[in-house]
Amino acid sequence: MLDFIRDVRLESIKIQDFKNVKCGEIFLDSGKKKNIAEIIGLYGQNGSGKTALIDALSLLKKLFCGRVIDRKYADYIRVGTEKATLTYTFTIKNEKDEIINAEYLVCIGKIEGVQENNYSESEKSEEYLPSVVWERLSLQIKSNGKVIEEYEPYINTNSSNYLFEPIDKCEMLLKGDEQAINDLIPQKKLTELSSRSFIFSRELINAVRKKHFVTDVSSIDKAILRFMKTYESLVYYGNFRLFIFDTRDASMLNMDIFPLSFNLKKGASKVNGNIVIPINGNGLIPSDAYELAEQIIDSMNVVLKEIIPGLKISIRIVDKELSPNNQLSYRVQFLSEKNSKPIPLCYESDGIKKIFCILNLLINVYNRYSFTVAIDELDSGIFEYLLGELLCIISNKGKGQLIFTSHNLRPLETLDKSCIVFTTTNEEKRYIQPTDVESTDNLRDFYYRDITLGEQSDEVYEATNNSEIAFAFKEAGEYCGS
Length: 482
Fold this sequence. Notes:
single chain, 13 helices, 18 strands
């Protein structure tokens, strides 16, 4: 099925009733010419919906990979509502002059569950688990920039009477095999109850592949061929081209555990994925993971020495052991070498550790067109001037897509206004791009002015009162006897 893999580009995300976002939409197309990086930096006050965007992308990755979505997503459904709806659009390069636009909509609900205590039967607590209520995958076809086929659903699971609708598409994809359809009906219910996507479940993917596996793609119907290219490309994109670095990954750094995402060449093949590596010499990693870590570090050192002059990262084997399954494993320690003087990397600053963790992702964003990275609080621990310069370089000369949240305003001075999104106080329109910005305007000053004067169509800051804050501090102090 690798013949069906095409480049995928995320185009937009629409969030409804998710966390504190009633409705918000972000478009990644910056209007720049083809094969140039697309960067979106999301800015706003605390609690305004920035991390909701990162969580929405993390949810997308889990769904596309066929994984169970985390329990927390049941709590992410906005208070007062029963369901959250998220819509993602993509472009897939097909033939020379043809583009396939794909729209994936997913509705997340919650079902009651019970958490038991193994010590006492009376200690049971009710909790909610997330469920994928329904999904829809639709395609639109463009040729030479013109729409030749409007958006048409290919799989819509919001059907109680059939496996999925439209029925003609279901029969086309499964070749009218009633046995295969009947076998998939309980699997559909199972994926809903087990908090997984049905559209991107292994069961449905394998059933569709089985019906359309041929050595000569010219013999496949054109509509099916377009769908298969889209389907396989989205699965591949979710597994190997979409990466999320969120606050959970950042918290692992404080425990000296590094989550490394990688996309490397190994001989004639490519290796993609994630590995978690302890850096303080107290953890074991398999020997093949050690070889992979060495290759990742070598690629990162090429850039690292340029952005932090004189700095180099190395890895050394502290000890060798056999794991319980008789696999050779290494106890390793990472070293930070500044001007040839090594110290354990675990003693470095949080900023150095953060750069070390995300650098390989940024390298891939710079070099790969179909590569999307989302980073929450990108600015945390990174010198603001360096942050602005890195983003400017990727924006001007990179190829992939970078989505980030930040509180540091330096990138507003180095990125084009098309790369910036502000959160608003309007729950019906949570995200906006700045308007009425002249080419000579300093976007950082513009944002400050907008916070104080409210020049955008929607307010970007819910005003606070310094006197009331000071009084609140004093009042709170009285509670503790200060």
